Amino acid sequence: MDAVQVGDKNDVGVKIILPSTIYGSPRFCSEAFQDAMAIVRHLGKPDIFITFTCNPKWLEITAGLNPEQQACDRPDLSCRIFKLKFDTLTDDLLKLDIPGRVKAHTATMQFQKRGLLHVHILLIMDAECKPKTTEMIDNNVSEEIPDRDTNPKLYELITTQNIHGPC
Protein backbone atom coordinates (compact mmCIF):
# COMPACT_ATOMS: atom_id res chain seq x y z
CA MET A 1 0.00 0.00 0.00
CA ASP A 2 1.25 3.50 -0.78
CA ALA A 3 2.76 5.35 2.20
CA VAL A 4 1.16 8.65 1.16
CA GLN A 5 -2.32 7.08 1.11
CA VAL A 6 -1.76 5.62 4.57
CA GLY A 7 -0.71 9.04 5.81
CA ASP A 8 2.91 8.31 6.71
CA LYS A 9 4.79 10.69 4.41
CA ASN A 10 8.13 9.83 6.08
CA ASP A 11 7.90 6.22 4.92
CA VAL A 12 7.81 6.85 1.15
CA GLY A 13 9.47 4.31 -1.12
CA VAL A 14 10.15 0.62 -1.03
CA LYS A 15 12.48 -0.81 1.58
CA ILE A 16 14.92 -3.32 0.18
CA ILE A 17 17.06 -5.44 2.45
CA LEU A 18 20.10 -6.73 0.61
CA PRO A 19 21.06 -10.32 1.43
CA SER A 20 24.50 -11.37 2.61
CA THR A 21 25.20 -12.74 -0.88
CA ILE A 22 25.56 -9.15 -2.18
CA TYR A 23 29.24 -8.22 -1.71
CA GLY A 24 29.62 -5.13 0.48
CA SER A 25 26.05 -5.09 1.77
CA PRO A 26 25.55 -4.56 5.51
CA ARG A 27 24.57 -8.22 5.95
CA PHE A 28 27.63 -9.38 3.96
CA CYS A 29 29.95 -7.27 6.14
CA SER A 30 28.29 -8.47 9.33
CA GLU A 31 28.59 -12.10 8.25
CA ALA A 32 32.26 -11.66 7.25
CA PHE A 33 32.98 -10.05 10.63
CA GLN A 34 31.24 -12.88 12.50
CA ASP A 35 33.21 -15.45 10.47
CA ALA A 36 36.51 -13.72 11.32
CA MET A 37 35.61 -13.55 15.01
CA ALA A 38 34.71 -17.26 15.01
CA ILE A 39 38.17 -18.05 13.62
CA VAL A 40 39.80 -15.92 16.33
CA ARG A 41 37.71 -17.53 19.09
CA HIS A 42 38.67 -21.00 17.87
CA LEU A 43 42.35 -20.51 16.89
CA GLY A 44 43.51 -17.40 18.74
CA LYS A 45 44.46 -13.87 17.80
CA PRO A 46 46.26 -13.11 14.53
CA ASP A 47 50.06 -13.03 14.58
CA ILE A 48 50.78 -11.15 11.36
CA PHE A 49 48.99 -8.20 9.76
CA ILE A 50 49.80 -7.46 6.11
CA THR A 51 48.56 -4.60 3.95
CA PHE A 52 49.03 -5.11 0.21
CA THR A 53 48.37 -2.07 -1.96
CA CYS A 54 47.96 -1.70 -5.71
CA ASN A 55 50.85 0.31 -7.14
CA PRO A 56 49.78 2.48 -10.10
CA LYS A 57 53.41 2.41 -11.30
CA TRP A 58 53.52 -1.37 -11.76
CA LEU A 59 54.89 -2.04 -15.24
CA GLU A 60 51.94 -4.30 -16.08
CA ILE A 61 49.58 -1.38 -15.42
CA THR A 62 51.57 1.43 -17.05
CA ALA A 63 52.13 -0.69 -20.18
CA GLY A 64 48.35 -0.95 -20.66
CA LEU A 65 47.61 2.76 -20.30
CA ASN A 66 47.32 5.35 -23.06
CA PRO A 67 49.65 8.35 -22.59
CA GLU A 68 46.87 10.54 -21.17
CA GLN A 69 45.53 7.88 -18.79
CA GLN A 70 46.25 7.11 -15.16
CA ALA A 71 45.75 3.79 -13.38
CA CYS A 72 42.53 5.03 -11.75
CA ASP A 73 41.13 5.65 -15.27
CA ARG A 74 41.37 1.92 -16.00
CA PRO A 75 39.90 0.05 -13.03
CA ASP A 76 39.52 -3.04 -15.23
CA LEU A 77 43.26 -3.16 -15.83
CA SER A 78 44.47 -2.19 -12.36
CA CYS A 79 42.03 -4.60 -10.64
CA ARG A 80 43.06 -7.48 -12.89
CA ILE A 81 46.79 -6.87 -12.30
CA PHE A 82 46.20 -6.42 -8.56
CA LYS A 83 44.27 -9.71 -8.38
CA LEU A 84 47.07 -11.60 -10.17
CA LYS A 85 49.69 -10.18 -7.81
CA PHE A 86 47.45 -10.78 -4.77
CA ASP A 87 47.00 -14.42 -5.82
CA THR A 88 50.79 -14.77 -6.09
CA LEU A 89 51.23 -13.25 -2.63
CA THR A 90 48.56 -15.57 -1.23
CA ASP A 91 50.31 -18.60 -2.76
CA ASP A 92 53.63 -17.47 -1.26
CA LEU A 93 52.06 -17.05 2.17
CA LEU A 94 49.84 -20.12 2.29
CA LYS A 95 51.41 -22.71 -0.03
CA LEU A 96 55.11 -21.88 0.19
CA ASP A 97 54.94 -21.00 3.90
CA ILE A 98 57.12 -17.91 3.38
CA PRO A 99 56.49 -16.53 6.90
CA GLY A 100 56.05 -20.04 8.30
CA ARG A 101 53.10 -22.42 8.44
CA VAL A 102 49.80 -20.53 8.48
CA LYS A 103 47.01 -22.16 10.48
CA ALA A 104 44.27 -19.74 9.36
CA HIS A 105 43.87 -16.48 7.51
CA THR A 106 41.28 -13.88 6.66
CA ALA A 107 41.39 -10.87 4.37
CA THR A 108 39.34 -7.87 3.38
CA MET A 109 39.71 -6.09 0.06
CA GLN A 110 38.66 -2.49 -0.47
CA PHE A 111 39.15 0.49 -2.73
CA GLN A 112 41.18 3.51 -1.67
CA LYS A 113 40.00 7.05 -2.33
CA ARG A 114 42.10 7.11 -5.53
CA GLY A 115 40.15 4.11 -6.77
CA LEU A 116 42.96 1.58 -6.34
CA LEU A 117 42.56 -1.71 -4.49
CA HIS A 118 44.26 -2.71 -1.30
CA VAL A 119 43.82 -5.69 0.96
CA HIS A 120 44.35 -6.29 4.67
CA ILE A 121 45.43 -9.83 5.52
CA LEU A 122 45.48 -11.42 8.98
CA LEU A 123 47.52 -14.58 9.51
CA ILE A 124 47.24 -16.95 12.45
CA MET A 125 50.45 -18.92 12.52
CA ASP A 126 51.01 -22.53 13.53
CA ALA A 127 52.25 -22.77 17.14
CA GLU A 128 55.86 -23.50 16.10
CA CYS A 129 55.95 -20.47 13.77
CA LYS A 130 54.38 -17.86 16.06
CA PRO A 131 56.71 -14.95 16.84
CA LYS A 132 57.25 -15.24 20.60
CA THR A 133 59.86 -12.56 21.29
CA THR A 134 60.67 -9.08 20.05
CA GLU A 135 63.88 -10.49 18.59
CA MET A 136 61.86 -12.92 16.45
CA ILE A 137 59.75 -10.03 15.19
CA ASP A 138 62.78 -7.83 14.55
CA ASN A 139 64.38 -10.61 12.48
CA ASN A 140 61.41 -10.50 10.09
CA VAL A 141 60.55 -6.80 10.05
CA SER A 142 62.96 -4.28 8.59
CA GLU A 143 62.82 -0.58 7.93
CA GLU A 144 66.30 -0.04 6.57
CA ILE A 145 67.14 1.76 3.35
CA PRO A 146 69.62 -0.45 1.48
CA ASP A 147 73.06 0.87 0.61
CA ARG A 148 72.98 2.66 -2.76
CA ASP A 149 76.38 1.32 -3.84
CA THR A 150 76.04 -2.29 -2.67
CA ASN A 151 72.49 -2.89 -3.90
CA PRO A 152 71.43 -0.12 -6.31
CA LYS A 153 68.34 -1.91 -7.66
CA LEU A 154 66.87 -2.57 -4.20
CA TYR A 155 67.79 0.98 -3.13
CA GLU A 156 65.88 2.36 -6.13
CA LEU A 157 62.83 0.18 -5.40
CA ILE A 158 62.68 1.13 -1.72
CA THR A 159 63.23 4.87 -2.22
CA THR A 160 60.70 5.15 -5.07
CA GLN A 161 58.02 2.71 -3.88
CA ASN A 162 58.10 2.50 -0.08
CA ILE A 163 58.81 6.02 1.09
CA HIS A 164 55.80 8.29 1.11
CA GLY A 165 55.79 12.04 1.47
CA PRO A 166 53.68 13.88 4.02
CA CYS A 167 49.93 13.36 3.71
UniProtKB/TrEMBL annotation:
Domain Helitron helicase-like: 8-123
Protein's name according to its UniProt entry: Helitron helicase-like domain-containing protein
